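note to self: the first set is below, dont mix up w the second
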Amino acid sequence: MKEMDLFWKSKSAILMLLISGVGIVLFLGVTAVFPFKSTLFNMLYGKPISQALEGASVPSVELGIEGTGEKHLNLASPETSLKLVWKTSNVKSCTGKAWGLSEKDESWSGVKDPNGGEFKTGNLTKNSAYVYTIDCANEFGDAEGDSVVINVGTPKLSQNPYITLMEVSVNSETFDVNKPVKVSLNDEIKISWASLNLNTSYSICFATGSWPTKYQNASRTNISETFKISDPKVYRYSLYCSSEAGITRKTVTITPGLI
């Protein structure tokens, strides 16, 4: 009888080990299909929208002039055409917008491939600042956007434009713009900015990302805008100021509510 008991106990132990092994395999399989931050997990547990700033969720786009590695280019004389290239990551949609001073290249305006692509500009024949911007987004929020400025008919200057102030206040409380600003939906948000060295004929300020107003402004250098956010997503506000001397940018990220 003792031998039979030992036999069945050993059988039970082997069976338990087999069941444990199968359980581990199943657990690894399930976690591989449904990682910690998976859609299934997020359906069960609420997730702060600030997590959209992490890892693969972040939408991004980069725009440049092929063959130069530049985002700001001065041409002493008119050019028939240049090629722009944009690259994206985690993007669902993109839109191109054209700006300018005396002229703009409207052939750039409109829907752009969210997977990236190339674009041949129109003829750059006028003495003007030609501005090309691109905005992209996914379901979590907006990318910072990106831009290229081509100044035709100008020499290079030495005094770069400078954004002296970029400030966010929410319900009269001022926040540090060097890290994401957390707000509640329908809070009153005010973004203020100021700049220097924008007194030349090619000076221009403009915006990408979430701005409700797309600035192109060379005369006023102290501007503020007040608005409310109603959707729970990540908002990014990128401001550019450009002249013959160069281009500068500042970005603010705002993360409202929970999803």
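second set (the one i keep forgetting abt)
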Amino acid sequence: MEIFRLEDKITTEYSGHHQLSRFYHFGMGLPQGSEIQLDFTEAEWFDGNLCALLWAVAYVLKKNFGHLISTDEIEIKNRFDILFRNGFLRTGEVILDNRKSAVPIQDFDCSDKEGFCKYVNDELLSHRGMPALGKDLKDKIMEDLLEVFCNSQHHAGTSDPIFVGGQYYPKQRVLKFTMVDVGDGFLPRVNKATNGKIGSNLDAILWALQGNSTKLFFDKCPGGLGIKNMYKYCKENGGVLQIISNDGFWSSDLEGTIFEGGRVLKAPFIGITINLIFRKDL
């Protein structure tokens, strides 16, 4: 059995994504059908919302390489019980989310718009960690998230599931929500739509943030406002939007820093990950 050790703090930022994408590359380098144990003994913290990304990595390693992923459930239960409370790890016993901090980890077929909308309404927008929102703003966030969900099938070039989940951090009064698809990422279609003018994953992310969409080029229909609107909401309400597409990592809270244009992941994961950080009662 091969062992991959998670270290330090796995949080919703560049370093956390770097660790989980390293796990993907670790698995890629092993013989087909290997057994991998995820070792949490050196980890100090794990953001529960990133279980969506960890699940996506494990899914790809199993589907593409036949790897079997396991963990020491006793160790995790003693130190990271959020992974049980949010449904990422399951045992025969029922484990209740007594802290009411988890937004359950779930996967959706990319055509299951109805299921996704019900999940967003019941688990995210109704969560105690969400800021107080009027009906119009709730409807707008639902509409924008649904567009991103539907666009995943459009740009991902895949029929694989979309992985979602979140966690509320009461002390910081923030709710973090993560969506992951395991497709091609933004760049291939953006590069084609712009006749090669956009040639990097970071530039493709910035292109999408401006409200551009490859739908207009390939399907002759509008699109792309979901990401732009979420960016606007975060800027106006103290939140954070992060977009990771293959090796491109962009975060709105890096604006005004040397990483304003984004950062490059040295060991990238596939597809697109979107993190939304909502701040409550600023």
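remember for set 2: Confidence is low (pLDDT under 50) at residues 216-223.
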